[in-house]
Amino acid sequence: MSIDMNNTVTARGIHKRFGDTKVLHGVDLAVDKGEVVVIMGPSGSGKTTLLRSLNFLEQPDSGMVQIAGIQVNIAENTPYTSRQKKDIEQIRRKSAMVFQSFNLFPHMTAIANVIEGLVSVQGMPVKAAREKGLALLERVGLSHKADAYPAHLSGGQKQRVAIARGLAMDPEVILFDEPTSALDPELRDGVLDVMRDLARDGMTMLVVTHEVRFAKSAANRIIFMEQGAILADCAAETFFSGQTTPRIAQFLGQVR
Ligand code: ADP
């Protein structure tokens, strides 16, 4: 696979093991600017590990990651150089992560959670950060909850705050790790609607999810993983057409 500099995300030959368990077997991936790519596959196939490897929340054993033009090559058993550490820091800033479990600071209000990175990482003055944060809360339909603490928000609202927090840093890509799996079914649509809006606005998104309706309506491409490898990487239409492989048909039969 060649590295297209227009790609927002490129990963090549990503290997990862935990102890004796090989979890990723040399995964290649490319996401264009503005693309929405959904990663599906059975539990334990390495979806989360792949996503976390892209912004170094997991340290890949070897391979290459490039996000927003910043490239990091990892060689087995070689400690990061100070240059690589700086590049990883940059990649983290350019890629927001939205977790299944929201990961909001419980002692901070919604707006404080959203602007924390702006103030502490980017050094933006609090007044300007608050203005930007309020606009982002508005975008996820929660400006009226700006001063609420997470304990007083529903799971769906917490996840929308987490998305606003991700957007605050003006990321090049948002990595979503099963953003609705921890939510009661009736709270999922609010989150998925926000994600659809982002997709429509041209945000580059990589989404691990089992939400077939979301994937059908918002994804440009579906990547299907099994046992640490990508088995299919195709247009959403093709993936859901029933014309792929018996294994994918079987998987879809289970998640529908
Ligand atoms: P998925 O997201 O597809 O469910 P994961 O990436 O979470 O898959 O996990 C892939 C495999 O790696 C699983 O066998 C899981 O048990 C293992 N694994 C994930 N994280 C760790 C960890 N921190 N330590 C040990 N094993 C892990």
TrEMBL record:
Q: Which CDD domains match?
A: ABC_HisP_GlnQ
Pfam families, per this entry?
A: ABC_tran
Q: Where in the cell is it found?
A: Cell membrane
Example of a GO MF term: ABC-type amino acid transporter activity
Is Electron transport a UniProt keyword of this protein? Answer: no
Q: Which SUPFAM superfamilies match?
A: P-loop containing nucleoside triphosphate hydrolases
UniProt keyword annotations, A-Z:
ATP-binding, Cell membrane, Membrane, Nucleotide-binding, Transport
Q: What is its main location?
A: membrane
| Keyword match Cell membrane | yes
Provide the topology term for how it sits in the membrane. Peripheral membrane protein
Q: Which PROSITE patterns match?
A: ABC_TRANSPORTER_1 (PS00211), ABC_TRANSPORTER_2 (PS50893)
Q: Which GO terms describe its cellular component?
A: plasma membrane
Stored Gene3D superfamilies: P-loop containing nucleotide triphosphate hydrolases (3.40.50.300)
Residue span, ABC transporter domain: 9-252
Family classification:
Belongs to the ABC transporter superfamily.
Protein name per Swiss-Prot or TrEMBL: Amino acid ABC transporter ATP-binding protein
